[in-house]
Amino acid sequence: MMKFKPNQTRTYDREGFKKRAACPCFTIMSIVQVLLVSSSRYPDQWIVPGGGMEPEEEPGGAAVREVYEEAGVKGKLGRLLGIFEQNQDRKHRTYVYVLTVTEILEDWEDSVNIGRKREWFKVEDAIKVLQCHKPVHAEYLEKLKLGCSPTNGNSTVPSLPDSNTLFVTAAQTSGLPSSVR
């Protein structure tokens, strides 16, 4: 089933690019895992949550809204990872932020309305999955892997480690779904 928003107004920048915003979502306890959602167009394929900006909406606010709608999570918005241009033919310009997840909803808008799913992936696995269907989304994670801290430096969230090993205590993961622990 495809997502349909009847009252959606597309916004464009001065160069004719559709303005979009997105967020790779991480947890404080497990920075080596990133949350991906199923595509509304191709439900068996995974994407980074994101979508079009509404009129008068700031990129950061749009990114947080899209993550809430598509992935059913809330969190702390981190730094701007970059502005990515997707497919010159489609002319999308996406502001990509990093979000540290603080709350995971059991049911959310897109899960109820279109059956969207979410899943936590190791960063390396997410990059491989995204390279097949959404290579520009894989670029978001590649940029983050280059040693960039996911936050503005005002948080205790570490940079991505060189390996996929991160040790956490059981107390740090209590209250989170087992798929995140």
TrEMBL record:
It is an enzyme of class 3 (hydrolase). GO terms for biological process: adenosine 5'-(hexahydrogen pentaphosphate) catabolic process; diadenosine hexaphosphate catabolic process; diadenosine pentaphosphate catabolic process; diphosphoinositol polyphosphate metabolic process. PROSITE patterns: NUDIX, NUDIX_BOX. It is found in: Cytoplasm. Keywords: Cytoplasm, Hydrolase, Magnesium, Metal-binding, RNA-binding. It catalyses: diphospho-myo-inositol polyphosphate + H2O = myo-inositol polyphosphate + phosphate. Its cofactor is Mn(2+); Mg(2+). Its main location: cytoplasm. Belongs to the Nudix hydrolase family. DIPP subfamily. This is diphosphoinositol-polyphosphate diphosphatase.
